[in-house]
Design brief:
homodimer, 317 residues, alpha+beta, 60s Ribosomal Protein L30, Chain: A, 2 domains, 7-stranded mixed sheet, 12 strands, 34% helix
Chain lengths: 317, 317
Amino acid sequence: MAKLKEMGERRLVDIIKGMIGSDVLIGPGDDAAVIDLGDQCLVVSTDLVSFRRHMPEGMTLSDFGWMSVAVNLSDLASMGAEPIGFLSAMAMPEDMEVEDLQEVVAGMQECASANGAPIIGGDTKNGEGLVAGIALGVLKREEILSRKGAEVGDLVAVTGHLGEAAAGFYSIQKGLDLPSARMTLFRPRPRLREGRDLARSGAVSACMDLSDGLSASVAQVSEASGVGMQILWESLPAGPHVSRLIEEGVPEEELMLNFGGEYELLFTIRKELLGHVHALDVDFTIIGRVVDGHENVLIRDSSIFSLGDQGYEHFRR
Amino acid sequence: MAKLKEMGERRLVDIIKGMIGSDVLIGPGDDAAVIDLGDQCLVVSTDLVSFRRHMPEGMTLSDFGWMSVAVNLSDLASMGAEPIGFLSAMAMPEDMEVEDLQEVVAGMQECASANGAPIIGGDTKNGEGLVAGIALGVLKREEILSRKGAEVGDLVAVTGHLGEAAAGFYSIQKGLDLPSARMTLFRPRPRLREGRDLARSGAVSACMDLSDGLSASVAQVSEASGVGMQILWESLPAGPHVSRLIEEGVPEEELMLNFGGEYELLFTIRKELLGHVHALDVDFTIIGRVVDGHENVLIRDSSIFSLGDQGYEHFRR
């Protein structure tokens, strides 16, 4: 039998899902779970971050604390939920300074309070240095956004900019001083207000965050919805420091499609209701459309490229 | 500044609590957090278990999975909540066999389904081998049980038996074959029905589970309620295999007061409403009473001993 490292994380999720006969609205595999409470729905997300895997060079402990909250709130954002609370289960090294743990908690607290999600509990044990964050939110049943629901003819859109978190990451590697790009990487802002407004507009058919990059999210929304997407390269809204990193030799596909980490939302719009989305106070860009079939393609300079779920390695016909 | 290992887990919780200005009903430090949703309250518990710290000799991976769910459901039980779902954030070694992870998940699934708590989501990352479990429950605001609320004159009671999980642990160390004691240790049954019935009876003033042992729970309920307790040694309901382990030389205080792990409930009863509790289908034993002051004492053979929060080391005047 195989070892875990030989399986992708998504295969593992599939295996676990297969073992669980669940009657919940949206089970493991979507950004968060949903429980119908009658007059409203409860949304719960859990995401685990560790010092070893989620602390790139230059990140402070307080940034790490912020991140542990932000990744979970972003899952609520992508479903359109209103946060009501946050919990953290931490496993921290026993030779860690108490002051350092306080810095992690201070970063959590900053992100939680900036986003209206009070920290209401948690657990602290001895361990390798990781935080399992738990975000709780509520929304009306008819407002739930999920990865499923995109239909042929819908428009594909993203909030904000792409590639700015990647620009932050590579700026550190290249020794460039780009503080605002670094902040996008280390202190991402979950798009909670945008998610809620999109959910309430009634015009959005599917939604997901961009934590793993545009190509991964396009692949997952397409697969969950049973459709394909055509993405127009020239329409992608590059962040302000992306061109600087391209000059430094970082592949543009890596920056724009692959790296992720910007926690913007990818969503699909029912074309006839586009006006509803324009009426919102949401900064977004239309980047493509939903098509028949199961293939995702990128159109660039009038050529068509196959778009895989891991971006630029598959960025070729 | 101190390192984490120099602080107790409860000191750490206090430090973190102090950093969080929370307006929730019951914040970090009680068994679970509570959020008022209007017509009902949401209860959320998170507890982290690891291979390294929570897998005694003889425990299988499926027992470990069961345990990761049971410890969290027990926190719901102690507040009187009805479970509505469970999530698990797992950090598992990359050289673990997929089959072994499936065994962990199978154990989770068994405990979750035996207790009416569907597994609704989670996260799986690479790591040292730990599970942060998250249990969700609901109850009416007026039914919430907490560690606070015990009043002078109340009776102190426990569900079920004491010492049986400890008997399981020491039976393995002593090479004895006591399967039912081992099951109490490895597959504890969270007292969900009992907790709910006690909460609804209106007769219970405070409640907590016994995961860390009777003396620890007595200390915590007394401290939270601002009272003392007198516990009568002769009234403690010993599990069926406790005497066998006493014969083997395990100190009876270790078995009955200290070791914990049986996940029974400690609760206090308003004396004039005792009849309400007798009317329930709950197996319980009165073990003492709530008294004025802040000292907890154990009365044995008509002598009075001071009862500390770590049991028998403090089991002397």
